[in-house]
Amino acid sequence: MPEPTAAAPAVVVLDRDDIRRTLVRIAHEIVEKNPHGGVALVGIHRRGAHLANRLHALTSELLEQPVPLGFVDIAFYRDDFAIRPQAPVVYGTQLEFPIDGRTIVIVDDVLYTGRTVRAAIDEIFDYGRPARVQLATLVDRGHRELPIRPDYVGKNLPTSQEQRVNVRVEEVDGYDEVTIGPARQSRSKAA
Question: Residues 117-130: pLDDT tens digits?
């Protein structure tokens, strides 16, 4: 697929059905990689939390038992918190199950530099000491600044710094879709 130029409109790379199939595959991979259970899903607010909800239903069905589900809000754990031009929107963290000794699967929509995932790991460790931490992401767009790699990837999407990946989910946006298009001019780095 040719990459859109800065002047090109956004291109749909995953539609609703693609996202559904991708999440089913990721759920199967999580269950296969963790056959002894002890796994919990933790979604990163905002869209990662909705994807985690969907994976929760799928993995619980596959395991035939409820999988613990939680959410982290990394707003105050970001390494650029002090230099951001506006106050963060706070959604709140909900980790209402024991973290110690579990395999925690962090769920996010787009993996880019790795800084969001690092912030999520920092926050999770404030709640306990998991046995392992794994990462599931709908899209891996590259350009890592930290040595973080996903265990479960929906789609590897090579991008340039001049592009932006937009994940839209039904629960927030009214429809499911992943697009790639030009980066916004007002931001130095896109998702």
Answer: 999 999 999 999 99
